[in-house]
Every structure is written in C-alpha cells, then in structure tokens.
C-alpha cells in the first residue's frame, strides 16, 4: 500500500507528538519529518518530498503563511493543510491565496484530522465548518484569491526580514539565518521602512503585530 507521506510543522513539540501518534496508527499514512519553524518546514519539504504538509501559522523565524507560499512556489505538487487555532479572516484568505488546499482548526477531532489528510492528498479542499462559513460569507468581497493579499508592497524577502526584526533578531543574526550579508539585511530593512513609512524598530514591531506577521 502506498502511504501518504506527511510532514508536521508546528513549534509545539507536544502537539507534534500527539499528531504523529494519531497519524502513524493509520495504515495509509506515515510521518516523514517534523519542523519546529517555518524555515525548517520549507527546507525539509525540499529534502523529504512529502505529499502533505500539516502547517501551523504562528511559528518563529518564518510564519506558516510565508512558508506555505515558499513551499508552493518551489514544490507545487505538495498539498498544504493549515492546522491552527486561528479562526481569522485575514489568515484564511491569505492561506488560500498562497496555495493551501485545506484550513483545519485545532479543535478538530482525530478522525476529522485523518480524513482531512486523506482528502487533501486526493486534491480535495478541506475547510472546518466555521472557516467554510467565513469563506462563503466573504466570497464576493474577497474577490480573486489568487491575487497577492499583501497590500503593503513588501517583497517576500522583506516580509521575512520584518518578521525576524519583530522577533528581536539583530542584523548579524538575520544575515546568518538567511545566508546573506549584513549590508543586504540593512538595505532590505531601509527599503521596508521606507515603503511602510516607519522610522524605528518599535514601529516595525507594532506593524508586524497589527498585520499578524508575528503572533503575541
């Protein structure tokens, strides 16, 4: 029997352990890897080639939404199922726009989680009932979900750096994490501050919280 190769991405070890137990007792599902942040999820997806990625949203270094976008760009065949506690309109819209095929809330039962993994593997869309209601209610207002939902004009790299700045990393640490020079980090930082009309780190952190780039 061909098993559904699944990657777990969540920064809470106890949650990953519980999900792994639920999935690995299934005869048709195996867990091939675990990531504790979005950047690791992107890396492991390229290395392990899972069929399905279970993706949390609020994770350090790179949030699950940006990780979803990067994974789908590099590995369009991978199915991403968002598994989160956030029943938030902005998160839902952005997740779907970035290529997630499912959005499941963490109050789902074990049976619902297993069914969702099997469904997205087959290419079916899976939404928790409250999420379905939000999508239906806002369908016309949301418009084309394929359009980029970020209206701030920031590039994906600038949004990565914004998250890292807001999480308290220095320019040197960011350069190490992203494997770019400190000068490049400084340039991106100046560009994003100019685009947003912000002037210091405190304003950047406030903006990142307001736009849900980081979670508090």
What topology does this entry show?
Blueprint: E1 4-9, H1 13-24, E2 29-35, H2 38-48, E3 52-55, H3 64-74, E4 79-84, H4 89-97, E5 102-105, H5 110-121, E6 126-127, H6 129-137, H7 139-142, H8 156-166, H9 171-178, H10 182-196, H11 201-210
Parallel strand pairs: 1-2, 1-3, 3-4, 4-5, 5-6
Q: What this model shows, in words?
A:
With 216 residues, the protein is of the alpha/beta class. It has two domains: 4-142, Response regulator (Rossmann fold, 3-Layer(aba) Sandwich); 156-210, Arc Repressor Mutant, subunit A, CATH 1.10.10. The chain has eleven helices and six strands. Strands 2-1-3-4-5-6 form a six-stranded parallel sheet, with helices on both faces. Helix 2 runs parallel beside helix 3 (64-74) and helix 9 crosses helix 10 (182-196). The longest helix is centred in the C-terminal third of the chain and has 15 residues, at 182-196. 35% of the residues are buried.
The CATH homology group name of the largest domain: Response regulator
Low-confidence stretches: none
Largest sheet: 6 strands, parallel
Gross morphology: globular
Q: Helical amount among residues, as a percent range?
A: 40-55%
Number of strands: 6
Order of helices and strands: EHEHEHEHEHEHHHHHH
CATH class of the largest domain: Alpha Beta
Mean pLDDT: 85
What's the CATH topology name of the largest domain?
Rossmann fold
- Determine the structural class based on helices, strands and strand pairing: alpha/beta
Termini separation comes to 43 Å
Beta-strand percent range: 5-15%
Q: Which oligomeric form is depicted?
A: single chain
CATH architecture tag of the largest domain: 3-Layer(aba) Sandwich
Strand order of the largest sheet: 2-1-3-4-5-6
Q: Treating each run of at least 4 consecutive H or I residues as one helix, how many helices? A: 11
Rg calculated over all Cα atoms: 17 Å
